[in-house]
Fold this protein.
Amino acid sequence: MKNLIAADIAAAMDNASWIRRMFEAGAALRAERGPENVFDFSLGNPDVPPPPKAREALIALADDATRPCGLGYMPNAGLPAFREGLAAKLAAEQGVPALRAGHVVATVGAAGALVAFFRAVIEPGDEVLVPAPYFVEYGFYCGHFGGRLTPVPMRGPDFALDPEALLARVTPRTRAILLNSPNNPTGAVYPADRLRALAAAVDRLNAARERPIYLLADEPYRIFAFEGAEVPPFLCLSPWAVVLGSFSKSLSLAGERVGYVAVNPALEGAERLIAALTLTNRTLGYVNAPILGQRLALALLGERVDLEPYAARREAMAAVLAEAGLRFAKPRGAFYFFPEAPGRDDLAFCQALLRHGVIAVPGRGFGMAGYIRLCSAVDRAVIDRSLPAFRAAVAECR
């Protein structure tokens, strides 16, 4: 067969995302056994409805769409009203009162924000440090532009942030340190003191560097913190801090693809970086974030999804895993669990789970073999009914 596609994309296809691979296995299993006999914890798709106000906002948008250019092009950085409202929200949330609309770009989800950012700052051969385990798509986001993702394992049962381990891996080609808190897949919430320590060290390093290291916070799960856990503000920690996020989870608008990137106003040259992000947002083919999504998010800026179902499911999943005899750190945020696989063989355990109707994702798909990821954003009844299957799979592997 002729070479129809690029070699790196061909390799990526051959090593397809474990998340998607297991999700597709679940679809086949449902067709074979019936959906009531399959317990799919593979995909992080928020299923709690958007806030009630969304219906009213959508009706208003339907009327607004009929005016001239109601669905037309807009400034590449986003609707001015949306940028203004978002900047006000982030200024309070991130402890940066000086943040204004001109420091924010609306993007096609948090993923689009990361891709646009990496296109703006990455040169071939640059590296991006990330605590492991990590969301696997990060490697593609920077790799498209010749960057290299460098995972740095976080140790201990709760995968706590280790600033020293990250700093020890800094090289002259390090261009960014990418953090994700609350974390996918572990549910870890990084505490303020460790974030401050990392930011202070990066500030010291940047004082002597021609090409600075950016501190990136990918925050789509910011509101998902439980049992008193607090997600500290990040943008205020350093002039080099950049916050990226979306409304996919916080408003259950995953399909609307509305995200953002915010730059610290204290950064010397912040306007130039925003101009670069606006350019890459356009020239990568996004052009602008969806207009209906921006208007809907603007109408719901003061809202959030009901967290109670997520909290209840978290408790139910913890009970099931404990009763099944699995070892895990109870997540403090997001809606994932990352238990240890019996015998530290994540592939064998996922296969055993599959035989009993449970769909999980091997930890190696997140850069940490020996564990599995389970998404608890599923119906409570599915979690409760899965206990016998988990028990049987654990017994089989032991």
User: Anything to note?
Assistant: The radius of gyration is 21 Å. The chain has a mean pLDDT of 93. The first helix runs from residue 7 to 14.
